[in-house]
From TrEMBL:
The active site is at 91 (acyl-thioester intermediate), 345 (proton acceptor), 375 (proton acceptor). Keywords: Acyltransferase, Transferase. Gene3D superfamilies: 3.40.47.10. InterPro entries: Thiolase, Thiolase-like, Thiolase_C, Thiolase_CS, Thiolase_N. It comes from Planotetraspora kaengkrachanensis. This is Acetyl-CoA acetyltransferase.
Length: 390
């Protein structure tokens, strides 16, 4: 039976998603091409052997529209014979790209695939793909949810209220994310996964020196009078500090079989063990990581205690803290090198970025199993279990 293994995983440093960010001047095509070029260079394979490039991008508009992954593959120097496609499962887009790639390899449809992700939020703002859409829902959807849905920030507030998460808990979590990311950077733990670009050789958003008193002075980022009347249970504690950043970046993961890897002289970092995707209440939007985690562990035949390292996307501190409350996961094994609150969240690139960090961290720690999951707009989540191979 065929398997699917990761033989290399790389990413750009994550830049601040603003006009003054270090990666703002890089066209999105070139931003993704950089990771694609790096993964071929590091494996040493002839890119003509790549059966497909599957890229995840959330805001497919402007410079990121019209199958940007194909243009990036050509910009990276891949032969014209190598196809490429772009997928959208919102923030989990490139984690879904990893799933599609691995499932294709296991099925025998592919031998070698690159799963990748991209987002240049400074050049293509979030929501730009909905510009001009007077009604993104339609009559039947609106009839099913007559009270309407909410934005992700309000959803994060609803989660904090439902799980009784305090401002202090969320701010402490945010500080820990920055501390872990700064320590990992200082110890050189990201060097193997990074492909420096435009003079940037480390993640740009990591901050040090913060404290609870400073964070407590920040104003709620998503307070809205109408939402406050609709949801009186919300205490409005989500701030810019305990939420993910707006960022630019890309990442790429090369996937093949153990047999092909051996023939090419490549050493797998990890085997893609099990996959799951789940849906949950679209009002709360970000909670499907709970059922997705349970689903993938059941498919893997593993328990929570079998997982050595977790990567849970830090869209908001409340999301990860609620997930930990529901699953019972040890936060000491979650995002041990920091998460999106510190490193950044370049939407479509984040799934491949988390996978890149996870497989390298497993290799460094000697752990066996890793689990990645991330919340996605619409009440969705992907979950993946990987196994380090010895």
């Amino acid at each position: 039976m065929r398997d699917a293994v990761i033989v290399e995983a790389v990413r750009t440093p994550i830049g601040k998603g603003r006009a003054t960010g270090s990666l703002h001047g890089i066209h999105p095509v070139d931003l993704l091409a950089h990771s694609l070029r790096a993964i071929v260079d590091r494996t040493g394979i002839d890119p003509v052997l790549v059966d497909d490039v599957i890229g995840g991008v959330v805001t497919q508009a402007g410079e990121q529209a019209a199958n940007v992954t194909r243009r990036a593959a050509l910009a990276a120097g891949f032969p014209e014979s190598v196809p490429a496609t772009t997928v959208d499962r919102q923030c989990g887009s490139s984690q879904q790209a990893v799933h599609f790639a691995a499932q294709g390899v296991i099925a025998g449809a592919y031998d070698i695939v690159v799963a990748a992700g991209l987002e240049s939020m400074s050049r293509v703002p979030m929501g730009a793909n909905l510009a001009g859409a007077a009604d993104p829902y339609g009559e039947a959807f609106a009839a099913r949810y007559p009270d309407g849905l909410v934005g992700q920030g309000v959803a994060a507030e609803l989660i904090a209220a439902r799980w009784n998460l305090s401002r202090t808990e969320m701010d402490e979590f945010a500080l820990t994310s920055h501390e872990r990311a700064a320590k990992a950077t200082g110890n050189g733990l990201f060097e193997r996964e990074l492909a420096p670009l435009a003079g940037l050789d480390r993640d740009e958003g990591i901050r040090t020196g913060g404290d609870l008193r400073t964070l407590a002075a920040l104003r709620p980022a998503y307070y809205d009078e109408d939402m406050a009347r609709r949801f009186p249970q919300i205490t409005w504690n989500v701030t810019a500090a305990n939420a993910s950043q707006i960022n630019d970046g890309s990442a790429a993961v090369m996937i093949t079989t153990s047999e092909i890897a051996a023939k090419l002289g490549l050493t797998p970092l990890a085997r893609l063990h099990s996959f799951a995707v789940a849906g949950d209440d679209p009002l709360y939007m970000l909670t499907a990581i709970v059922p997705a985690t349970r689903k993938v562990l059941l498919r893997a035949g593993l328990g929570l205690d079998d997982i050595d390292l977790f990567e849970v996307n830090e869209a908001f501190a409340s999301v990860v803290l609620a997930w930990a409350r529901e699953t019972g996961a040890d936060l000491g094994r979650v995002n041990v090198r920091g998460g999106a609150i510190a490193l950044g969240h370049p939407l479509g690139a984040s799934g491949a970025r988390l996978m890149t960090t996870l497989v390298h961290a497993l290799a460094d720690s000697g752990g066996r199993y890793g689990l990645q999951t991330m919340c996605e707009a619409g009440g969705l989540a992907n979950a993946t279990v990987v196994e380090r191979l010895t």
